[in-house]
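Second attempt. The first submission of ATPase had a stray character pasted in from the spreadsheet, which I only caught after the job came back as garbage. Lesson logged: always re-copy from the clean sequence file. Corrected sequence (855 aa) follows.
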Amino acid sequence: MTEPQATEKVLSRLIWPLRLTRAGMVAERVTRAFWPVWSVMFVTVAAFAFGIAGRMGQTTLWAGLGLVGLILALLIARAVMRFRMPSRAEAMDRLDRTLPGRPLSALLDHPAMGAGDPATQSVWAAHLRRMADRAATARAPEPDLRLSRQDPFALRYVAATALAMALLFGTMDRVGEMGEAVSFGTGPAIASGPSWEGWVEPPVYTGLPSLYLNEIFAEGFETPVGSRITFRSYGEEGSVSITTDVGPLPSDAADSYAQSVTVERSGDFTVNGPMGRSWSISVLPDQAPAVALDGEVEGEPPGQMQFSFTATDDYGVTSGTATIRLDASAADRRFGLGVEPEPREALVLDLPMPFRGSRSEFTEVVLEDLSQHPFANLPVTMTLTVTDAAGQIGTIAHDVPRLPGRRFFDPLANAVIEMRRDLLWSRENAPRAAQILRALTQSPEPGLDQGVYLQLRSAIRRLEAAPDMISTDTRDQVAEILWNAAMELEVGDLDDALERLRQAQERLSEAMRQGASDEEIAQLMDELRQAMDDYMQQLAENAQPGEDRPDDGGERMEMSMSDLEEMMRRIEELMQEGRMAEAQEMLNALQQMLENMEMVQGGEGGDGPRTPGEQAMEGLQDTLRDQQQLSDDAFRELQDRLNPGRPQQGQPQGQGQPGQETPEGQAENGQQPGTQQEPGTGQGGENGEGMTLAERQEALRRMLEQQQGGLPGSGTEAGDEALRRLDDAARAMEEAEGLLEQDDLAGALDAQSEALEALREGMTELGRALAQDQAGEDPGQGLADGNMAPDRPLQDPLGRQAGNSGAFGSDEAMADREEAFRRSRELLDELRRRSAEQERPELERDYLRRLLDQF
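This time the job returned cleanly.
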């Protein structure tokens, strides 16, 4: 077979792919040329399907149809002029471009030279055979029917949506109204005979669709009560009428073209006349809403009321209220409550409604602080009421033995609040309240705040000023004064840490005696822990260097912070188990210990007390080390994600023995070389187990903020610069925390690098500030002696020791410095090697390059 014959045979096999390709090109060009035509037609059909012809006059309809016809004619003419039938050559070129190497063009081509050369002919024949094999695999390409470039505003989708809405919700029979509307004169319309149509429109709040009576062929249907039936008749007056017993008809319904009736009950609806029909209508009643209280009304410390409720309705609840009234009969009518209470308006709270979703059934939580209301801590009756769109009401009443409010455990504050309660119960209690308040202030307790004393005396004067009965304004003013005084007594504004600790212990003891709830006891326990921390910090800050403590014969009690934490944890366990007597005994023992104890922090004290500067520098050193460890862990996790199944990084061959240093300058346990991780001090230690990277970063940021609060050297230029650098570090930590929560490890590593740099600079500036202060007091002592945290020397990322006063440098031997340089070179070589590996993800390589830029 000759080459031309083979080529013709191959092309004959491609006749169907060529035809399909050409058909696809025709579809593309027809779509692009004629899409405006069918878009206008879709919109026109949708308009008539929704009954636009019946709402327009004949003249207006004629004008509209003429305008639509003119637009269609112009669009069709434009489309015909733009349309061009694709040729066979164009189809072949389209098909050829879908194949590698353009084999169809090659089969129709001929060599430019070497026609008489056998070798050239042999190569050309082999080339044609390869092209023929490729051409045999040809498949017709899919046509490109996208019109985004021709229709950038997506008008075609608007037209298609209008047609779809007409098919779903409109009536295509109405399109025939166009012929009736454009008829000349009234003859044809009258000749067509009378007609009618009707709609059933349920109430809007039901959310149900309207029904078209002409399309209901069943004998009956259901509709909600309150639905409106609208009926229209066309033709000679009186030729079509309706009769129904579902609701009253208007008085002129007999001779009216438009009639409507509201469905109030089940019954029949009949159309009398041509094409008459009859339906049996069943009314769906609207059920009244219902509401139920989930659980009991509970207190949320310090003084909030909380309860949850569930509301249901067949179509949805629109609003709800909680009405709270005093239940005087259930109160303990002794002491100041023995008189009859004054009438007081009920407390009305709006129930929360869901913003999204259905309101047919939902559950919400009410949280209100009613501590200052006269009903607080008294028995009340709470009535929940919900209303639906039809105005129907659902209600439920619940007796609450005690309306949750703030409870006062300070004895004097509790007495003041009791007088406030009696006064709000009835103004008849004013003389008695004044007398008791006068007794409380006659011989005040030692240490009573002067402001509280003056407030109580002011309340007494107001109560005793009225000759008979105090006014409601005076009562409310006195109640406000008593509330503020009780709050100061309960919470207080004490500056003395020990007194605050004693007060927290007394409040906890009083709560245990009064049988407070678990939530209240938990809150008071947290307050006790906070007061304990403040007291310990005060003890540490006030400890004088070299202070000689009296020797009591070895009977002094030495306790660490962990011992105190364990003791408080045991007290909390006893209270949770209900063993209040044992918990009270242990609490009393704790109070006795605190008054005589000598705290030993972290097992230190062998070499004498440290200065505040040493403590601050050592704390920042711990924070720097922990931040470096956290950054290393984040980088390892990023590598694990980018390279699943990779060997552990940082353990090159020959360096995997325990305790041997890695190229990163870290030991196998993840610590910086030359440092010793103390238990519980680093986030990578025991306290970091079970914590996410973001939680560890948050803990480090909080630790840094606490260290900033007691930083020495403020007021000097170096001290202020140190604070600014540490603020920058805290902001970088906060940014890293947010990125870790978003699982953006690469961005978090950059922020952590900024935090490390800011920490180092802050420590350097702090060292300078401390050196200046120390030089002004006693040159040659303190930090200048180089004894700052000798057991844990500060290091930079390259393993160099920090010099005195936080300045980076070294007085170490040359051999040690050579070892540090060697580790630095290994680290740089490892970073360069990893950044040059092309198989690593681009994200990791970009991070490694940024690390190299810092060196």
